[in-house]
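Can anyone check this?
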Amino acid sequence: SYDQVMLGDPKQELAHNIAYGKPVGATAIYSSQYAATGAVDGRVNEEWSATNPAAYWLLPNNTLGSLIVDLEGEFLIDRIDLQNTHNGGSRDRGTKEFQLLVSLDGLTWTPVVDDLLSFYDSATSALLNTPLESFEFTEVWARYVKFQVDGYYGVGGGLAELRVFEAVPEPASLTLLLLAATGVGGYLRRR
């Protein structure tokens, strides 16, 4: 299941999103205007013009597929936020069933989420009213994150935004770490 995320300060959200601007590839794209890079560009609207490529990734009609983000390092993660596409003003497609998988080597994948995305086909503007959906899972080490489209609304799948977040230690864990560090430091000073 998921929680809808209200869009706050975009600069602050992007500062914590470790997928922002990272290398990304896809099994297929509708056209070069709807490249996988649109899913990690930080733009949370589906604006499009001839001089401004789409801020979202689309699969070809009636095609399943996936995109893979290289985080360029190993991170302990526990949350991924997704924003479904509705293909701008066309509102003719979006991802329905999907999986999120993680990997350290890009070869062996571990599923962390198997769920559904909401579809907002009644959007009256190009976007702005399609929320991010937040998916939390048990923390796991990952270098690669795969978003796999297993089903779609309308004529095909895609994704407007994918954001990955590092796990934040619980306050109790931080306290234990501080106590351990203080205890070790105190022991070394007494010697």
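Reply from J.R.: I decoded it. Helices lie at 10-16, 171-190.
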